Amino acid sequence: MVYAFDSVARQTYIREVILALGQLAMMEASNQTSFYVVGIGLSIGGIDPLTEILACLPDNSNAAFLIIQHLDRAYPSKLAARLQPFTKLKVNVAIQGMAIAFNQVYVLAEGQMMTIEKGCLTLRKRRHDETVNKAVDILFKSMAEELGGRAISIILSGLDGDGSLGATQINLKGGITIAQLPASAKFPSMPESAISSGQTHFILSPVKIAAMVTELTKN
């Protein structure tokens, strides 16, 4: 009977240790992914303000940056290579299943849609029936669900209203929404659409967007 009791006690102890280690691992993972995620949507006229923003960001930002540019699916994107000279942050082309890390920039390639799931990037091909490109809305909505108050959306120059619905979801989930000051945009339709939704917290020039993001993500 003594040996049976010792065996049961030992098994109970092992189970408690495994449970405690699992809880510790979850806490560590939570701490590692407690940084902010900044989604940036842009279309025509958006590259210049985007490079201004990246050039003004610190090299120790407590945030990851996901960039969605409206692209013709027939032409390979060279955006990642164009952006790297403007920032000390590493610029990556987004890959299926890639884990998001702070101090990193992720650029969506042509012909794809991107969402976030459990701290990783999920990619799919843009369907042929998706004639209107809503890649920014799709990303922002997933950021709202996945990140809540750690999501920040930025909408830059462009010709349509993509991003405004997704930014609204980010606001409703406790995140922060930013639009480029229309007067500073070559094509203000995208930021104006976001602003007209009434869900935009800040309307700023590119340099001031960088300063605001730096301040918001300090802690």
What does this protein look like?
- The protein is of the alpha/beta class and 219 residues long.
- The protein folds into two domains: 1-32; 35-216, Rossmann fold (3-Layer(aba) Sandwich), CATH 3.40.50.180.
- 40% of the residues lie in helices and 21% in strands.
- It has helices at 2-32, 47-56, 79-83, 135-147, 164-172, 189-196, 206-216, and strands at 36-42, 63-69, 90-93, 104-107, 112-117, 120-125, 151-155, 176-180, 202-204.
- The strands form two sheets. A seven-stranded parallel sheet has the order 3-4-2-1-7-8-9, sandwiched between helices. Strands 5-6 form a two-stranded antiparallel ribbon.
- Helix 2 (47-56) packs across helix 7, helix 4 (135-147) packs parallel to helix 5 (164-172) and helix 5 packs parallel to helix 6 (189-196).
- The longest helix is centred in the N-terminal third of the chain and has 31 residues, at 2-32.
- The radius of gyration is 21 Å and the shape is globular.
- Mean pLDDT is 86; it is low at 1-5 and 22-32.
